[in-house]
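Budget justification aside, the reviewers requested a transparent look at the raw inputs and outputs of the sequence design task funded under Objective 1. We therefore reproduce one unedited record. The lines immediately below are the structure tokens for a 143-residue chain.
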């Protein structure tokens, strides 16, 4: 395995004065590079809802979805192209590669990290909040 040599800057953002903007990109898993989307990113301004964006390999915006909450971690992308996003207040959402919401689930506590995929399940950890105990949640269909 070797590192690649970057050949272009994908995204240059002009920030509104006095505001901090965070980008948290995640590339799609091994797919045809000409088949969009190639990159998903979370755009987040403190104390405002984050936005999930899907970009082509050339950086063209394909679609965006408001997450209606803060998000402090990059999305997780499955081999089937599903995109999983966690938000600060415990919302977990799945989108298909066209941006259609597949499902939404609420877990107790704060969620600061991305989900991890293994054996057909999405694993998400949460921190305590308002009396809710921290937990590790395995999300997936029953076997």
């Amino acid at each position: 395995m070797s590192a690649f040599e970057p050949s272009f800057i994908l995204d240059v953002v002009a920030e509104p004065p006095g505001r901090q903007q965070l980008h948290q990109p995640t590339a799609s898993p091994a797919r045809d590079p000409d088949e969009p989307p190639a990159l998903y990113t979370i755009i987040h301004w403190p104390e405002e809802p984050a936005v999930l964006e899907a970009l082509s390999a050339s950086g063209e915006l394909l679609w965006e979805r408001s997450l209606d909450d803060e998000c402090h971690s990059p999305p997780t992308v499955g081999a089937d192209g599903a995109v999983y996003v966690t938000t600060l207040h415990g919302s977990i959402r799945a989108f298909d590669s066209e941006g259609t919401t597949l499902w939404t689930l609420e877990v107790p506590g704060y969620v600061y990290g991305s989900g991890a995929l293994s054996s057909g399940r999405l694993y998400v950890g949460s921190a305590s909040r308002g009396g809710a105990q921290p937990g590790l949640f395995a999300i997936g269909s029953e076997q």
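The two ends are 35 Å apart (CA to CA). The mean pLDDT is 77. Computational costs for records of this kind are itemized in the attached budget.
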